[in-house]
Amino acid sequence: MRSETSQSSAHGAHGYQSTPHVQSSAVHLPAPPPRLQRPRASTLVILAVVLGLALHGLYRMDIDYARLLRGPENIWDFVTGAIPPNTERFSTLSEAMLETVEIALIGTVIGVVLSVPAALLAAQNTTPFLPLAYAMRFVLTTLRAIPDLVWALIFVMAVGLGPLAGILAIAVDVLGFAGRFFAERIEEVERGPIDALRSTGAGGIAVVVDAVLPAAFASFTATSLYCVEKSIRGATVLGMVGAGGIGGELTTAFNVRQFDTALLIILMILAVVLLAEQLSSMVRRRMLGADQLTRAV
Amino acid sequence: MSTPVIDVRGLVKEFPNGTRALSGVDLQVTAGETVVLLGANGSGKSTLQKCLTKLVRPTSGTVEVLGTEVCTARKREISALRKDVGVVFQKINLVRELSVLTNVIHGSLGRVSSSRNWFACSARSEQREEAMEALERVGLAHVAGRRVEQLSGGQQQRVAIARMLMQQPRVVLADEPVAALDPRAGRAVMDLLWEVTEEQGLTLICTLHQLEIARDYGSRVVALRDGQIDMDTHMSRVAEEELEGLYTAEDEVLHAL
């Protein structure tokens, strides 16, 4: 009853004729909006462009649908050829896998270490010079926009075949990713403690080390762990362009149609990537502590 | 009467959005004096405090603090001035992720320029001892090794006072130091603040909005209203109604809602 009266008085406030009878206020209700509305012009344009591109692509690429039909047959060849996986070269492959993990770890460490100064320059609240922050952002975006496989190609060209190119490719990829996330975290750091240290007369570097970095540290660690995960995933294919690790073995196995070896490699990659994910989420749990992870809602 | 350590004349502050926070404030404070700044939200008391160390740039008027003419001083002079002015914040503003001892040692960062003092583990023995003394003074020497976030709000504000002592300032600005604390912890912090400033002969300007606390601690009371000094007198001479009057404008707004 109470809610009904408040409803009618609310209508009164909106300029409708208020009546003593609660029921009659329903007569004055405006019609509800229509169930369907005409889509906006911009929606139609976007839809048309997407559809047009798709149709144009199918026409231009001149796809041979017979090949599509042969697909299942070839996959069946692969499956029968791959099972059971061939463990003959397991020790050699393990070595290549170890190299992949090491490329990922070393590259990530280099990338994360470089990300801290890069982020301090890129964050608007710690940069010494605002245009420098924009320039740094642009550099980081560029590093991120170029895929790690392309970086690997570039570094193979620069330093030759082998794991060094892989390490550099991973480092650059991590720098682009972690640099941005670190910078964003730095920009979120609470103003108060920074002002407090400033007001004691502390210098800029002291303020960064003592107020900015401690507040951002937990988030830096979480981002770095994710980078390790991401780098291991990325490093498994770097070998395909000759930048070291297990990827080279995978390409070779496919080229010589040793599907049983290829399957072993794929299973090994799967195991290592899953393990890396588990490890990183375990470390994260430890870091956050039990309190943060108890159900809050 | 000695020369004032704080001498504010005709201070006006107008913000870019047109808000006139201060319109012609005069205030003289002598060395070792304790002043309570009273006023409702938006009366200009925080702005006045911020003008003293040029955290807010005055629009017109003169502000002289510890012999430094704030409005015309160079950057270097301002940072020298800030080293002599300790600040206690309403929001405490300790670095929560670091240890209590590290936070107290931070107070010495302006005074002793040594990167060893960035963290308690690497700090010079001299500053470590000074910091322990400061912590002992606020009664928290036993939690020196804990992380700040593990302490209660009242304890944190006491650590902030220890940090302020570590700075060895001559003037202390406290901006509603107990607004975020429960009444009992608030009293403990106020007692401590009043005691330490008296011991060290520091000049203290403390903004407050809780009338009861102001009544118990205030000696000289300066009340602001709409950016102007409404009264500047001794607490014992203020009638109850006058104090209540400072907040009526705000109360009326509340009742009208």
UniProtKB/TrEMBL annotation, chain A:
Gene3D superfamilies: MetI-like. InterPro entries: MetI-like, MetI-like_sf, PhnE/PtxC. Residues 97-280 form the ABC transmembrane type-1 domain. Residues 1-26 have a biased composition (Polar residues). It is a multi-pass membrane protein. The chain crosses the membrane at residues 41-59, 103-123, 153-182, 202-228, 235-256, 262-279. GO terms for cellular component: plasma membrane. It is found in: Cell membrane. Keywords: Cell membrane, Membrane, Transmembrane, Transmembrane helix, Transport. Residues 1-33 are annotated as: Disordered. The keyword Membrane applies. GO terms for molecular function: ABC-type phosphonate transporter activity. Belongs to the binding-protein-dependent transport system permease family. This is Phosphonate ABC transporter, permease protein PhnE.
UniProtKB/TrEMBL annotation, chain B:
It holds the Pfam family ABC_tran. GO terms for cellular component: membrane. CDD domains: ABC_PhnC_transporter (cd03256). One of its GO terms (molecular function) is ABC-type phosphonate transporter activity. Gene3D superfamilies: P-loop containing nucleotide triphosphate hydrolases. The keyword Transport applies. InterPro entries: AAA+_ATPase (IPR003593), ABC_transporter-like_ATP-bd (IPR003439), ABC_transporter-like_CS (IPR017871), ABC_transpr_PhnC (IPR012693), MetN_ABC_transporter-like (IPR050086), P-loop_NTPase (IPR027417). Keywords: ATP-binding, Cell membrane, Membrane, Nucleotide-binding, Translocase, Transport. Residues 6-251 form the ABC transporter domain. This is Phosphate-import ATP-binding protein PhnC.
